[in-house]
Amino acid sequence: MAAHLVRRCCRRLLLPALPGPGAGPALRTGPARAAEEPRARARPEGEEQQLRELIRAAGSAQELLQLGRGAALSSNLAALALARLARLSTEQRLDTESLRGDPRFQQLLGTLDAQISQVWNSSLLQLLRVLPALGLARGGRQVRSVEQEVLWRLRRLPLRRLVQLAEQLAGQGAPGPLLPEVLRKLELRWTELEGARTVVTLMAKVGHLSPALMERLEDKALELAEQFDPDELRRVALALALQQRRCVPLLRALSYHLLQKPAELPLPVLTDLLFAFSKLSFQQPQVLHRLALELQPHLGSLSPAQVLRCARSFGSLRWLSRPLAEAMAQYCLDNSQSLTITQLCGILVSFARLNFQPSSSEEFFSMIHERLQGQEQQLDVHLLADVVWSLCVLQQPRAAHLCQVLCPEFQARLRGDSSPRAQSSWLKLLHINATARLEVPGYEGPFLPPELLGGHGDRDKDKDKATPLQRWLREALPGALGGPDLVRYNVSTVYGWDIDAEAVLDSDNKPLPVRDYSAPHLSHSEGTKPLPPGARRVAMLRWELPQFSSRGRELLGRGSMARRHLRAAGFLLAEVPHYEFLELKLERQRVAYLKDKVAKALASDTAGDTAGDTAT
Q1: How confident is the model at residue 25 (pLDDT cuts 50, 70, 90)?
Q2: End-to-end CA distance of the chain
Q3: At a CB cut-off of 8 Å and minimum separation 6, what does 393 contact?
Q4: Which end of the chain has fewer beta carbons closer than 10 Å to its terminal beta carbon, N or C?
Q5: How far apart are CA 128 and CA 281, in angstroms?
């Protein structure tokens, strides 16, 4: 760097314009660029322009190289010739190795290297892309010389050139000393950023390389959100999603300004926004309603992969738009042969998550069973468990599918896998086993062995990690139901469902010691006595926010199946939804609420009622 500075100072001292005879001493008062480009100024402008046009019009590498040999080119013209040569080598698929061995090519490089400080900024930045394209090593002397000159000029580069350089280096993906310095300069000069497109481009292409810069860009995007067009809104949302940055203020601003756009949104904007919001678990009802409404007319033109992506996104967001879901079901019927078995299974799993039954359910599920027949062995073990579980949620299982996943061979395929996906599959097997025992009367086996039926425990026993609903419920339950002798707390059933509290009440609704009686819903029962005549089991069951649809108070598929299973197992359910219990601020109010819930469950005696899916 010091040698570079000395060379520049010497050039300024030794290259002033000489005065003519009889003339006085000439003082150079023009811009600094004149001192840095003496050779370019010495050539007449007409000749310079003529050479520039010849370089741009050259149609072959030999023509370019001969042009460089015939006239002593300035460094700017040499840079332009190298850029044109790189373009021709790409278009005509020339052998870059033979080009590099040509003496005329080396002459161009020599001219460039000797006068690198005189190359204009635009040409210099272009050289960073051109030289590697011509086969020159990124760690070679010529490339390093250009990088060093760029480093020297970074502080004086206009912000527009700095942004261009950052995009260029980020696209190359090669590590080097230049990119971190460029990002650091952008972090310091972020307040100079103007224009929505510049901010959006940096967020999409450069933001993932510097979290500090991304924070500044989010602030700038929040300031400029009103100026974003729909495509820029899409790109910002995708950048946040792909970097897993859930910036809620910015997402809210994007949602607000998206709703202000009067025109119909383009299809790519609809699908990408839906994907981004699902990736970030960001639910904005008005936006989701608009996306679903405007997506429905385009559904027939989507590919099967796009339909699957939309179904998964709505399932992840817990948003059920029945008209759109009906259109998806009809799409599956109309394009059943175009959909792969994996895509069809993915849409089915999304329907089960949302607890959606198509109006043409008989035709839809007949098609599903027909496509699944004989294809089970081709499915991934976890996907097969998801598919059969989904059929159980939607009350459409067949004995053949139950046998497929409950047989010992299927269990052997899951053993030894400790991944979260495998743990989820084991829990779903418990739900499938419960469906086979409680909801499929003609099914005779196989079933899961007893040693696999206990200890699933999806609750978190750590009180510090418990949800507010779970924590307040624990505090109020003893006052509502009684002490540990009369109530069993935190029960893990063999059906794969957890119960917050279980009590046994006699015919006069008085509590009995729950541990004295046999409990077929437990893997290891503490008591052996049968229930007295008229006695009933009451289960306290809480419903958290994620167990409901985003649109209202309808349980999703998982909660709906839990309710059916526990009722079929003989429980009276005292259900505690979050939107009621969390409104109670005093403990005495919560205790009174729980007592009232138990009293209503006993009065209604709905042990076999499976009609409603709406939480009380």
Answers
A1: very low
A2: 75
A3: 352, 355, 557, 558, 560, 561
A4: N
A5: 40
Opening angle at CA 269, ends 267 and 271, nearest 5: 70
Number of CB atoms found within 10 A of residue 290's CB? 19
Instruction: Note every long-range contact of 43-51, with CB atoms under 8 Å and residues 24 or more positions apart, other chains counting.
Output: 43/74, 48/74, 48/77, 51/77
8-state DSSP, 575: E
pLDDT grade, residue 7 (50/70/90)? low
Q: In terms of Cα–Cα distance, which of 564, 590, 577, 376 is closest to 480?
A: 590
Among 30, 99, 111, which Cα is nearest to 61's? Answer: 99
Q: Is the peptide bond before 446 cis (omega within 30 degrees of 0)?
A: yes
- Residue 539's beta-bridge partner residues? 502, 573
The closest of 405, 337, 408, 335 to 376, measured between CA atoms, is 405
Q: How are beta strands 536-543 and 571-577 bridged, if at all?
A: parallel
Instruction: Identify the sign of the CA torsion 6, 12, 13, 18.
Output: positive
CB 144 within 8 A of CB 179: no
pLDDT digits (tens, 9 = 90+) for 102-149: 778 888 888 887 888 888 888 888 888 888 888 777 777 888 888 888
Q: Give residue 238's pLDDT.
A: 95
User: Which residues, in sequence order, are CB contacts of 31 under 8 Å at separation 6+?
Assistant: none
**Cα–Cα dist 55/358, whole Å:** 66
Within a 10 A sphere around the Cβ of 350, how many other Cβ atoms? Answer: 23
- Report the pLDDT value the prediction gives residue 72, as an integer from 0 to 100: 65
Residue among 303, 304, 321, 309 nearest 279 (CA): 309
Average pLDDT, the chain: 84
Instruction: Annotate 260-271 with DSSP letters as a single string.
Output: T--SPPPHHHHH
**Longest pairwise C-alpha distance within the chain:** 130
Q: What are phi and psi of 614, to 5 degrees?
A: -95, 130
Query: Which two tokens mark 443?
Result: 């099914």
Q: Could you tell me where the beta strands, DSSP code E, fall in 127-252?
A: none
The mean pLDDT of 402-417, rounded to a whole number, is: 90
Structure tokens at 471: 């924590």
Q: Provide the 8-state DSSP code for 572.
A: E
Full 3-state SS string of 469-529: HHHHHHHHHHHHHCCCCCEEEEEECCCCCEEEEEEEECCCCCEECHHHECCCCCCCCCCCE
Q: Are 318 and 556 in contact, with CB atoms under 8 Å apart?
A: yes
- In whole angstroms, give the CA distance from residue 548 to residue 188: 46
Q: What is the pTM of this model?
A: 0.81
* pLDDT for residue 271 is more than 50: yes
Tell me what the mean pLDDT of segment 369-398 comes to.
92
